[in-house]
Amino acid sequence: MARRLPPLNALRMFEVAARLTSFTQAAQELHVTNAAVSHQIKQLEEFLGLQLFERRNNQLSLTMAGESYLPRVREAFRALQQATDALLDDKTTTLRVAVPPALGTKWLVPRLYRFLNLHPDVRVEVSSDFDRDYQRNDITIDHRQVDAPDLVVERFTSSTVFPVCNPATATTIRNTQDLARQTLLHERSQQRQSHLPNWQQWLEESGAAQIDASHGPAFSDAQMTLQAAIDGQGIALGQQILVEYDIAAGRLVRPLAKEVSLRVPYYLIFPQHAAQSHAFAVFRQWLMDEAKRSG
Known about the structure:
This is Glycine cleavage system transcriptional activator. By secondary structure, the chain is an alpha/beta fold. Helices cover 42% and strands 20% of the residues.
């Protein structure tokens, strides 16, 4: 006789709580009370006869049983979603893509129409609000590598970095030393990693380490930093992959031709099972082709 299945609602709350490692945040995402989450998790643990979570020093974490159970629950929800998509529209496949906000706005979205024209049967859902839970998406573009047995990490592209500003500001810059009289715009966010280049590193490689790189306003993401440069508020350190459209449109220029070795790597990260999808295969190949086109 087949065993009974656990309650679907409890499984959903388990997946969200495990992803966020917080009952409080899970309750907020699911629009229920903390008590409701706790009750459903307890109900699931009683059904399984196993403890899924443990709390140490006010930190919630998965037990070994929870770690083992989570990927299987995620795969079950993914299969259920795919089956529902196929039932509601058997001609369309949904592909979930996650990117950092600036890369999505400045690089992916402006060229996405080319993919959609080639593959009208693939419905692409792009998200920039991700907490690096790579299992939730079919493919993620990120500048940080991960090491997990159930994920595939491929080198996607790398981007040079160089100063950018609007055309009017560029008329006041003839050489690297002129940057000492300019306002430097900085990107400083919680998501910014130490491996991403900053002004101090660029100036050191350019032979201008004596310039004070600590001054100038800071912004929480690259989009605001680049917009400030477009508006003439100073000079930003831009990634080529993020500024090529603004340069082509004349909103930004590269005032100095100085080349340095600093680069920002990007990776394609995806669950192993995602590679079995035709939609994934054609989108991955399209990404690679677009990266080559960007240079």
